[in-house]
Amino acid sequence: MTLLQHEITDFTVSAYNNGQLQDVSKKDLLGHWSVLFFYPADFSFVCPTELEDLADHYSEFKQAGCEVYAVSCDTQWVHKAWHDSNEKIGKVNYPMLADPTATLARDLDTYNEQTGLAERGDFILDPEGHVVAYEVISSNVGRDADEILRRVKASQFVYEHSDQVCPAKWEPGEETIKPSLDLVGEL
């Protein structure tokens, strides 16, 4: 089963963001591009390296009109404690969503029933809240914010230019491909 074009279900969760606790809901994800960045757990090993990498690239995501949301099955209080005690996580200034009931993790099929944790997955959502790209990988392998950002920009391009596609390693400003009409059904 694919999650492409899946519309994220209604939700409201607590979040830790820039020293404050707040609620985040589906409506907060609408009207702009979003990345839901699932990771297994706070106070872990690979996760802080990924969240720091996203923090280092956060301004580039914002310039691209994309909000980043880190998501784990921890509570907002654990997010705050981790943010206050870890140098890498202290750099995070994007919302850290608390999903202790695994509402989001189950909706996007990243919840591991055996461990009670979210798998390492990132989901790019269009402004209407539909999944347009995603990746779920082993919990012992970290991801690269540059590649996620590249996929956001490529997804935005084809969203705005539905008659074109982006080749491998495409970056904004590079040539795209305009499929011939007789091959469009074979994409």
TrEMBL record:
Alphabetized GO MF terms: NADH-dependent peroxiredoxin activity; thioredoxin peroxidase activity
The alphabetized list of GO BP terms reads: cell redox homeostasis; cellular response to stress; hydrogen peroxide catabolic process; response to oxidative stress
Name its cellular compartments: Cytoplasm
Q: Which reaction does it catalyse?
A: a hydroperoxide + NADH + H(+) = an alcohol + NAD(+) + H2O
Enzyme Commission number, as recorded: 1.11.1.26
Note the SUPFAM superfamilies from the entry. Thioredoxin-like
List each copy of the Thioredoxin domain by range: 2-157
Cite a single Pfam family from the UniProt record: 1-cysPrx_C
Q: Which UniProt keywords apply?
A: Antioxidant, Cytoplasm, Disulfide bond, Oxidoreductase, Peroxidase, Redox-active center
Q: Which InterPro entries match?
A: AhpC (IPR017559), AhpC/TSA (IPR000866), Peroxiredoxin (IPR050217), Peroxiredoxin_AhpC-typ (IPR024706), Peroxiredoxin_C (IPR019479), Thioredoxin-like_sf (IPR036249), Thioredoxin_domain (IPR013766)
Q: Is Lipid metabolism one of the keywords UniProt gives this record?
A: no
Please give an example of a GO cellular component term from this record: cytosol
Q: Which residues form the active site?
A: C47
Question: Which CDD domains does the record associate with it?
Answer: PRX_Typ2cys
Main function: Thiol-specific peroxidase that catalyzes the reduction of hydrogen peroxide and organic hydroperoxides to water and alcohols, respectively. Plays a role in cell protection against oxidative stress by detoxifying peroxides.
Which family is annotated?
A: Belongs to the peroxiredoxin family. AhpC/Prx1 subfamily.
Indicate the quaternary assembly: Homodimer; disulfide-linked, upon oxidation. 5 homodimers assemble to form a ring-like decamer.
Stated name of the protein = Alkyl hydroperoxide reductase C
Q: Which organism is it from?
A: Bifidobacterium pseudolongum subsp. globosum
Read off the lineage from the record. Answer: Bacteria, Bacillati, Actinomycetota, Actinomycetes, Bifidobacteriales
